[in-house]
Amino acid sequence: MKSAGEKISSITAYDASFARIFDDAGMHAMLVGDSLGMVLQGESDTLPVTIDDIAYHTRCVRNGASKTLLIADMPFMSYATPEQAYDNAAKLMQAGANMVKVEGGEWLFDTIKGLVERSVPVCGHLGLTPQSVNVFGGFKVQGRDNEKALAMVEDAKKLEQAGIQLLVLECIPTELAKAITDAVSIPVIGIGAGNVTDGQILVMHDAMGISFGKIPKFSKNFLIETGNIASAIELYMQQVSDGTFPGPEHSFK
Ligand code: KIV
Known about the structure:
By secondary structure, the protein is an alpha/beta fold. It has helices spanning 16-24, 36-39, 51-64, 82-94, 109-117, 133-136, 146-162, 174-183, 204-207, 222-226, 229-241; strands spanning 8-12, 29-32, 69-73, 99-103, 122-127, 166-170, 188-191, 199-202.
């Protein structure tokens, strides 16, 4: 799809019923995100989420979605060493995931390479990586200064060399998202990264205006415009496809 210039739509999912609606709509990918700690469990960040939580929800989503590429998040400290990553990725793949997602840059090179060599497809995640919220001092836009922006482009290239097949960019300036998307040959999916990436991902609760707390600036309530879930998902996919979502009002400079 990247080489054909077709935009990729993806969304988080945590249970079989929503997964079926997304699958029926032709969603290209679903993520069992560790965002479940916030939107399902009501925690203030993603750190309390365990590998068993993600495995449980991955199994639920797989039971509702037979067609869509299913990505499962490796939660905080579940991939601190390559060996830990292998054991924990096995649990997610056995629960029905097609790919696992890890947050971080160059330090993950050996872990990613080892996972790929062991037949586990990997998605990277750069920018505002929520598992590092305590290092960032809050959920803040990343890569605004030149040095950090250049380091992020290098990280993306390193992750591609290690073997990732997909990259998520979260909450970074649109210009940086464009530089990273152009610098790698794998598809790049953005959330709060402007409409310049190869596709988008949203947390499903944000896309339907039912988030715990306030809806982030980069998201949009598609349900309010459509009145039913299937039409909201169709509208989201349509606006991703024609590049009208995200607009400048959902993006960062
Ligand atoms: O956990 C999650 O839902 C995510 C997305 C925001 C990309 O990582």
